[in-house]
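4.2 Preliminary Data

To establish feasibility before requesting continued support, the project team ran the inverse folding procedure on a target of 164 residues. The structure was first converted into the token representation described in Section 3, and no sequence information of any kind was made available to the design step. The complete token record follows.
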């Protein structure tokens, strides 16, 4: 019996998998034959303490600051594909005004934890995606979308996993 591939979904800052956008994403990827594993982040703990094991033939999806946890996981474990969705840009962890804004929002502990644990490479193939209204560069730009998992965003995610 063939087992379904898994997709791990990591929500963004102060969000949980109960939010409508993550439930919509889960329904869509299930219809493509994936088993969904939600991994909610405990935002009171260091991200580096929340790294978990993933299967080699799985897909890892993280949104916004949740994509940073996906990045830390992908440094340690190999999987089929990592999707960094609207990930907080790594340049924001390199000092300057962007880092200060990030510290004001998420706190120095989280920023320092990410800075201390970022490595230059990950072990898996990855795709970065952003909404066109975010004004970021990525492998995939989603039209008519800001920093959110819109229907357009979900459709692009499905396109990506279908071609994986």
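Position-by-position output of the design step:
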């Amino acid at each position: 019996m063939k087992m379904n591939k898994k997709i791990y979904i990591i929500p963004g800052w102060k969000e949980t998998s109960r939010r409508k956008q993550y439930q919509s994403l889960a329904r869509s990827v299930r219809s493509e034959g994936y088993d969904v594993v939600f991994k909610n982040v405990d935002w009171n703990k260091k991200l580096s303490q929340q790294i978990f094991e993933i299967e080699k033939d799985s897909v890892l999806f993280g949104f916004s600051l949740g994509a940073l946890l996906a990045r830390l996981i992908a440094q340690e474990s190999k999987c089929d594909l990592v999707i960094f969705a609207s990930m907080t840009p790594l340049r924001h962890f390199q000092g300057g005004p962007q880092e200060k804004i990030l510290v004001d929002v998420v706190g120095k502990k989280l920023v320092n934890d990410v800075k201390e644990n970022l490595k230059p490479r990950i072990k898996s193939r990855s795709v970065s995606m952003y909404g066109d209204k975010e004004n970021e560069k990525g492998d995939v730009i989603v039209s008519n979308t800001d920093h959110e998992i819109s229907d357009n965003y979900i459709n692009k995610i499905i396109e990506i996993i279908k071609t994986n």
